[in-house]
Write a structure and sequence with these properties.
Blueprint lengths: L1 H13 L1 H149 L5 H50 L11 E3 L4 H7 L4 H10 L2 E3 L6 E5 L3 H17 L4 H30 L6 H9 L4 E2 L2 E2 H19 L4 H9 L14 H11 L4 H9 L9 H15 L8 H16 L4 E7 L4 E6 L6 H18 L7 E6 L9
Helix pairs in contact: 1-2, 2-3, 3-9, 3-15, 5-7, 6-7, 7-8, 9-10, 9-13, 10-12, 10-13, 11-12, 12-13
């Protein structure tokens, strides 16, 4: 301020005008400076107040954001806690289920271990019995060896005695000695063989009977023989004319669509169906029943019903195969094999339904395998498939065994199953336990009372041939077939056949029956030698 006054005074000295101008300029500058300073201070104040307001709003907004963040974090925390508790609960439940399964498996393993121990004990007992049997066989061999040595000594003594006898050549003595020795050896061998055979049979038959009886009791199949229906009942004789149709067009259409011959004769209210194919016959039977129930019988309707029934029968065949596989507990069969198996529902053999027979063989073979302590799966599978060739034996050349083997090979069945199918009628020798069990189960199922039937003519022929074969041997006096051909009793001439020879005769007759006669089950050969002495008191 002092400097400004100094400048003003200096200006006054210069001149009044200039001094005034300078003074005015100085005053203006001072005023301007003061105004600028006041403006700047006012602006700074406004800026400070704005900044304070912004800071205050920012603080409020920060508090709001923090509050929202805390709420969201708390909500997220509660959500995570709930999810964690839920997951923990689920895991605990899963651990509990796993623990329960492990306990069940442990119990199952304990049971299996107990069963295995029992089977092991049973096998040990059987091995002990087998060792006893082997020991008995060895003792019998020793006895036979001693007998043989005794015979050799007797031969030497007899030879010296014969050489001493006058008028007998060496060849004659040798021949007489051979005949005597042969008779002695035959008697001794027959007696020894009979004793050994009786001892072996006593153990083997008892064990086999137990196994077979147990298997049959557990199977407990209870069904009668079945017939494939080939006769359709009519409500009245007028229906025959409607089925024949004008100029025979209906019956021709029906025979053409089904491949079945319709036999319409004088029998009242009945039509007979004739066909070699049981499936076709079933289609024709169901078609006729539907047409009779519907009443509309004309060629177009016949074709429509035949197509519908054929689809139903095919579905029924597939369902029957699936039910059989499920009932037998056989898994992994090819779908085509299942369908072919279902066709056995409409196939019979001597009046026995082949599908039920196959199921019965499967059950029996499996149960006998279990009784023997071996894996029953192969025996069960082979028993179910052993007669599958009969489903298509009227369509393919060859025996049902050959067809069944080809089907099993085509659909990649196990080699043991194929072998059991091939050997179940002894076309080849059975080489596995499963094949033998299928043979036995097939014989049991076929031979049980009521399982099969055959025509009277065939039955009589078989009985006559059975007796003729037994009569063809020397020394046989009479033969009697009993038990419906399941036993042949052979009466021999006592002066021609001795007790030792009866053993060999029974064996020879059994062999000849196996080679020359076809029969279900087995035939018991019973050779009887009877000696009677008669005298009169006078």
């Amino acid at each position: 301020m002092t400097s400004s006054i100094t400048v003003l005074l200096a200006a006054l000295e210069v001149g009044p005008v200039i001094g005034i101008a300078v003074a005015a300029l100085v005053v203006g500058a001072a005023v301007g400076f003061l105004g600028y300073r006041l403006y700047s201070q006012n602006k700074i104040g406004l800026a400070k107040r704005e900044a304070a307001r912004i800071l205050e709003e920012a603080g409020l907004e920060a508090k709001a954001i923090r509050k929202d963040g805390l709420l969201e974090a708390k909500e997220q925390q509660n959500k995570m806690r709930s999810e964690f508790e839920k997951e923990t609960k689920e895991r605990r439940a899963e651990w509990q289920r796993t623990e329960n399964r492990l306990v069940q498996k442990e119990n199952a393993l304990d049971k299996k271990e107990e069963i295995l121990n029992k089977k092991e004990d049973s096998l040990d007992n059987k091995l002990t019995e087998l060792e006893k049997s082997q020991k008995a066989v060895e003792e019998n061999r020793e006895r036979l060896k001693a007998i043989e040595e005794e015979l050799n000594r007797s031969q030497e003594v007899m030879q010296k005695e014969l050489e001493r006898v006058a008028g007998m050549t060496k060849e004659e003595a040798s021949q007489e000695l051979k005949d005597a020795l042969l008779d002695d050896v035959k008697r001794a061998a027959a007696a020894e063989a009979k004793a050994i055979e009786a001892e072996a049979k006593e153990n083997a038959v008892k064990e086999a009977q137990n196994i077979i009886a147990t298997a049959i009791q557990r199977c407990a199949a209870d069904h009668a023989t079945e017939n494939t229906v080939s006769v359709v009942a009519l409500p009245n004789d007028e229906m025959k004319g409607r089925i024949i149709g004008r100029m025979g067009r209906n019956i021709r259409a029906l025979e053409s669509a089904t491949g079945v011959d319709l036999i319409i004769d004088d029998t009242p209210d009945v039509i007979t169906l004739s066909s070699f194919d049981p499936v076709r016959r079933e289609v024709a039977r169901l078609t006729l029943e539907k047409l009779i129930a519907d009443g509309r019988i004309h060629p177009a309707r016949i074709e429509e019903i035949v197509d519908k029934v054929r689809r139903e029968v095919n579905a029924s065949i597939k369902e029957a195969g699936e039910e059989a596989v499920f009932e037998a507990g056989v898994h992994g069969l090819h779908p085509e094999l299942v369908k072919i198996l279902g066709r056995l529902k409409y196939r019979t053999s001597y009046g026995q339904n082949v599908l039920k027979h196959s199921l019965e063989v499967s059950f029996l073979a499996s149960l006998m395998a279990q009784e023997l302590g071996i894996d029953p799966k192969v025996a069960k599978r082979a028993g179910l498939l052993h007669d599958i060739g009969k489903a298509i034996d009227h369509e393919v050349e060859g025996t049902h065994i050959q067809i069944g083997v080809e089907l099993a090979k085509k659909y990649k069945e196990h080699a043991d199953v194929i072998h059991a199918i091939a050997a179940h009628h002894n076309d080849i020798e059975p080489e596995t336990i499963a094949a033998v069990l299928v043979q036995a189960a097939d014989a049991i199922s076929s031979a049980r009372p009521g399982a099969r039937r055959e025509s009277l003519e065939n039955y009589v022929k078989r009985i006559e041939k059975l007796e003729d074969i037994a009569k063809s041997f020397d020394g046989v006096e009479q033969t009697f077939a009993v038990q419906a051909g399941r036993e042949i009793r052979v009466m021999v001439k006592p002066e021609q056949v001795d007790d030792a020879a009866t053993v060999f005769l029974a064996h020879e007759i059994a062999e000849k029956l196996e080679n020359e006669l076809e029969y279900p089950g087995q035939i018991k050969v019973n050779v009887i030698r009877e000696v009677r002495s008669v005298d009169y008191a006078k």
